[in-house]
Amino acid sequence: xxRLIVILSSLAVVAVAWVLWDSTPSSEAIAKSLDHAxxxxxxxxxxxxxxxxxxxxxxxxNFAEEKDIKKTRSQxxxxxxxxxxxxxxxxxxxxxxxxxxxxxxxxxxxxxxTSIPIGLDDSNTRLFLISEGKRLYxxxxxxxxxxxxxxxxxRFYFHVGLTPxxxxxxxxxxxRTDDRLGxxxxxxxxxxxxxxxNDDERWMKYPISDWQIFEQARGLSTIREHRQYEAxxxxxxxxxxxxxxxxxxxxxETDPALDDRGKFDxxxxxxxYGTQANPRWFLIEKSGGAGEP
Length: 293
Fold this sequence. Notes:
Layout: H1 2-16, E1 19-21, H2 25-43, H3 45-51, H4 64-77, E2 80-82, E3 89-91, H5 107-110, E4 114-117, E5 126-131, E6 135-142, E7 153-158, E8 166-173, E9 182-187, E10 209-211, E11 218-223, E12 227-234, H6 235-238, E13 246-253, E14 257-258, E15 264-266, E16 269-273, E17 280-284
Parallel strand pairs: 3-17
Antiparallel strand pairs: 1-2, 4-5, 5-6, 6-12, 7-8, 7-13, 8-9, 9-10, 11-12, 13-16, 13-17, 14-15
């Protein structure tokens, strides 16, 4: 009877789970090493100084411990497998010239990409994804966004719920005129011990979101008749593996709604695909060879 209960419980978990994380002892050991790498980074005086600077960090995290975190998180991401019956969205690979990341979606560059409608309220927002095996190229066409103001931003989240420590990693492409983008890892890591009373270090009271974790990621946005976004992630740096599924979701934000006085009332989204609680699943093809896009 007890054995039957265990079997039925296991089948129920498989039925509702989007992803099965390999829980073998070797994976558990890797997860522990990830915890240790984060503890080491938090103990690094250079990191503490960097994290405590006023405003958002502007320089790339080039700490040895962060490199260890990326390596370990990549090892864990390589062990993810989709639940039985789940078919992830396929991201095609090809051999040829990649899209130019200039914030302009040229049909000739993206014609072989996976194209997904993600618009809200009939906004016709569309997501594009393609790879050449070493990088992931992402674009978003937003016909409903026709102004150059507001909170225009494309956010691509991945490694969703990868481990109990990593909530997600993500890139933000906004309205900057250069190709830098925001690269963030959201964690459940909290600063150990009592936080300082210095208001400039209030971040130590909350779970840590690490900014500027990607050195090679780039992204740009332009607005001609309407807003368009393009971005690229280096697969090795991002810990995404061809042939291995990964959980992701997308948000596209436009001008905010204003109240009667012309003041901010609430955020407005014109694109959404998945959520933190219910991510979508993708898989980059292992090999290309499809020729020019």
